[in-house]
Design goal:
By secondary structure, the protein is mainly β. The chain contains 4 helices and 60 strands. Strands 2, 40, 42, 43, 44, 45, 46, 48, 49 and 50 form a 10-stranded mixed β-sheet that branches. Strands 13-14-16-21-18-19 form a 6-stranded mixed β-sheet, with no helix packed on it. Strand 48 and strand 49 form a beta hairpin. The longest helix has 22 residues, at 107-128. The protein is flat. The N and C termini lie far apart (87 Å).
Length: 794
């Protein structure tokens, strides 16, 4: 048995400066209150600060993976993909080549094609007319090339430019990929480099299994005539059946009303595993309810009888189906959307065969740096026990995978913690049988049966703060926990069902519980863990942390792809996920950054959960993207704590909900050239309520013939406005005002501003003309709103 482990969110020389069955679907969603960025799945996902220059945006990749040792083509759908020259895929063993590009037609192009079509039609008619041509001219000959051109024009006019396709999906780039035989299996990140920069990252998988794909669907292919498909007599909807040999990975796209079917031969007693990846490929759709492709998997025998069906795997929307084959014969797997929606970006991958799949582990973690021993449950596993060495790791969340007969299983999460740990001991279902604990402590337990509850007894002093927190759903346990804390008399003094963890970017139902309370009196307290829905079983594991507060923080940086001009500033956003009451300043910096890179406004002020800042990308253009690392430092209890900022994409779900979805790498593409401004005034700029403040920046814009510069705020703080902009030489001076009716004393953060001006020139005939010039982002300027200075008496 082979064990593979990796950390889920790895920690980061600082550079300062500058339940669902088909009949009971219930969509649970949560709004991330601190994340109010405007985004759209088919448009660039951007920091609220200000869009970077329009960059290519990938909406889907099809197929979203391939087999080791194979050469194949993939289609990438999205927006602003013109001029794509190459693709960048993380990891080793993948090469790519751009082989095609399609885009919607412009209105002028449509008009030209119609005119050509009309002329060809007239030529066809004239060629069939009797006699000679007009005025005795020779009759035109309608050639095979003319006929070919008619077909081409008809197809183009039927394409996305004619249909008014979703602009976020309308452009398509075709790549030829070659995967080496030793390319490591697993998920990668794919980006493309187009004329306007580097795209957002997208999931691409390398597998060990043979793969098959149905024909690609693009806006053009949708508009073109499609082959007649078999109709399902039960639903009167189209369906396609393809033959596959197990084990295999099948790739598909679902259009409205479609049902894809895969027929295979299986032998009696085979333990079939079907693992669908749909939401795993595209986590959130901005313009679809519930916000993702809700795939379903149904298995039929040779008589067409449904023998197994799944539309999820516990709380995960992607279904997993396990079935023991009862008799030799042909079986058919049916894939569709639960409510028969579909579109080009309804992409899926299905791994099927006698494949290993881990359904749960127990315990859900272990103490660092001990050797972890876990019980494994699942299908087609090589063993029911797993040992993991943790000496070379540090506290955090990791994933583990096992290997059986050459095939890797799915990855499951486990946690490492520095606190002492113990196992829950039954019976402990009542206060009288409560298990005694000494805080701090991590309890590894499980709700073993429906209606079970686990009770723990702790001693506490009056005024002490106690934190009780359940980690279950965040570690792939189906437990929907509820925490209740009572005093010695049985009085409930605190309880919690769902605790929102903004760091869990893919979670839409925050089912873990957390309570933080100040103990009102010395004595005995009881902590009870149960399942809100009264479910239970061996897989309902949890980790219960009972300890004093551990102030700490995590960081997320968006976007995960940064496009910048050399010598210019570009805005980014960093989010602080504060833990256990930590509210201090967090200083930000770049770790091991290339020479010339730096951050402006590199501090998250105390008490704030997010800051907009700017990245200076150096003065040198680069042919290939570079990987960056942003880290944050804070002083907590007299000690310096440093954490890496995890790259993330701000994704919108179902028109309204926002999620910070972690990515693997933070990549920057530096191209073009510009000239950055530099802050001359002291920092932070203090803006008095009811008064004004002056800011001076050195800018080389005037030297390039740009004048009449105007400056606009991006997401200004309440009450602050630009009153006056003046330019003297290369010094840009701004006067800011602060409205006492809306401004709040003590507000701190960064001012982000965009500058633009006019460049005058002399045209033909000596006529003077001017053109608007966008100068880009000014460096982020730290500010603080302060009380007005009292006027001196005379």
């Amino acid at each position: 048995m082979t064990i593979i482990t990796s950390q889920v969110l790895p920690p980061a020389k600082l550079v300062g400066g500058a339940d669902g069955h088909r009949a009971r679907h219930c969509w649970r969603t949560v709004f991330f209150a601190g994340v109010i960025v405007v985004a759209f799945s088919a448009l660039p996902t951007i920091a609220r600060a200000q869009p970077q220059r329009t960059a290519p945006r990938i909406a889907y990749v099809y197929p979203a993976g391939g087999q080791q040792g194979a050469t194949f083509t993939i289609s990438i759908g999205g927006q602003n993909l013109n001029g794509t020259t190459t693709a960048f895929i993380t990891g080793n063993g993948v090469t790519s080549r751009v082989v095609g590009y399609e885009r919607p037609l412009a209105q002028r192009e449509i008009t030209d094609l119609r005119e050509q079509q009309q002329k060809l039609q007239e030529k066809r008619i004239a060629s069939k007319a009797k006699g000679n041509g007009a005025a005795g001219a020779a009759k035109p000959v309608f050639t095979a090339e003319d006929e070919k051109r008619v077909v081409e024009i008809r197809q183009k006019l039927a394409g996305p430019g004619r249909r008014g396709a979703n602009p976020g999906l309308a452009e398509t780039v075709t790549l030829e990929l070659t995967l080496s035989k030793d390319a490591p299996p697993g998920d990668r990140e794919l980006r493309i480099k187009a004329a306007s920069g580097l795209s957002n990252p997208f999931t691409f998988s390398v597998s060990q299994l043979p793969e098959t794909s149905e024909p690609v669907v693009t806006p053009t292919s949708i508009a073109a005539p499609r082959p007649r498909r078999e109709v399902d007599p039960r639903t009167n909807r189209p369906r396609v059946t393809r033959d596959v040999k197990l084990p295999a990975v099948v790739n598909g796209q679902i259009l409205p009303g479609e049902v894809d079917r895969y027929r295979f031969n299986a032998k009696k007693d085979q333990r079939l595993t079907v693992v669908v990846a749909a939401r795993a490929l595209i986590p959130f759709l901005a313009d679809a309810v519930p916000g993702w492709f809700q795939a379903t998997a149904a298995l039929h025998d040779s008589n067409g009888r449904e023998v197994a069906y799944e539309d999820d795997f516990r709380f995960n929307p992607d279904p997993v189906l396990a079935y023991v084959i009862p008799a030799d014969g042909d079986y058919t797997l049916e894939i569709k959307d639960s409510i028969y929606r579909g579109r080009e970006d309804f992409v899926y991958r299905v791994a099927m065969g006698e494949l290993p799949f881990v359904t749960s582990i127990f315990p859900l973690g272990c103490a660092f740096p001990e050797r972890g021993t876990f019980e494994l449950s699942g299908w087609n596993l090589p063993s029911t026990r797993l040992a993991v060495e943790t000496k070379d790791k540090r506290p955090g969340t990791f994933v583990v995978s096992v290997r059986n007969q050459g095939q890797f299983s799915n990855r499951v999460r486990f946690a490492l913690d520095a606190h002492p740990e113990t196992l829950e001991t039954e019976p402990n279902n009542a206060r009288e049988a409560a298990q005694s604990l000494n805080a701090p402590m991590i309890v590894n337990g499980r709700i073993e049966r429906p209606g079970d509850r686990d009770v723990f007894r702790v001693e506490g002093a009056a005024g002490a703060t106690l934190v009780a927190e359940v980690f279950a759903r965040r570690l792939n346990s189906p437990l929907d926990s509820v925490l209740t804390i009572t005093d010695a008399s049985g009085k409930v003094i605190a309880s919690n069902d769902d605790y929102e963890d903004k760091g869990a970017g893919l979670t839409t139902h925050h089912a873990d519980s957390r309570v933080s309370l100040t103990l009102p009196a010395p004595g005995t307290y009881f902590v009870e863990v149960a399942d809100t829905q009264h479910h239970g079983g061996a897989e309902y594991g949890y980790r219960l942390r009972i300890a004093p507060p551990q102030p700490d923080f995590e960081l997320r940086v968006t976007p995960a792809t940064i496009n910048a001009k050399a010598g210019m500033h570009v805005p980014i956003s960093v989010y602080a996920l504060r833990r256990d009451g930590f509210a201090g300043d967090i200083m930000l910096g770049l770790r091991d950054a290339p020479r010339g890179f730096g951050l402006s406004g590199a501090r998250i002020p105390a008490g704030q959960d997010m800051v907009h800042l700017t990245l200076y990308a150096g003065a040198t253009t680069r042919d290939e993207p570079i990987e960056l690392a942003i880290v944050g430092q804070a002083t907590i209890a007299g000690r310096t704590t440093t954490h890496a900022a995890v790259p993330a994409e701000d994704m919108m779900q179902a028109f309204a909900y926002h999620h910070l979805v972690p990515m693997q790498r933070l990549m920057a593409q530096v191209s073009g050239r510009g000239a950055a401004s530099r802050l001359i005034s002291s920092s932070p700029v203090r803006i008095p309520v009811g008064g004004s403040a002056r800011i001076e920046l050195e800018t080389p814009a005037a030297g390039r013939g740009v004048e009449n510069i105007k400056v606009d705020f991006t997401d200004p703080p309440p009450g602050v406005a630009v009153q006056k902009v003046t330019m003297r030489g290369e010094v840009l001076a701004l006067v800011l005002t602060c409205d006492p009716a809306t401004a709040k004393i003590g507000t701190r953060g960064n001012l982000l501003m965009q500058a633009a001006g006019e460049r005058k020139s002399v045209g033909k005939g000596g006529a003077k003309k001017s053109s608007r010039v966008q100068l880009g982002s000014l460096p982020a300027i730290p500010f603080e709103i302060v009380a007005a200075t009292p006027a001196r008496s005379t």
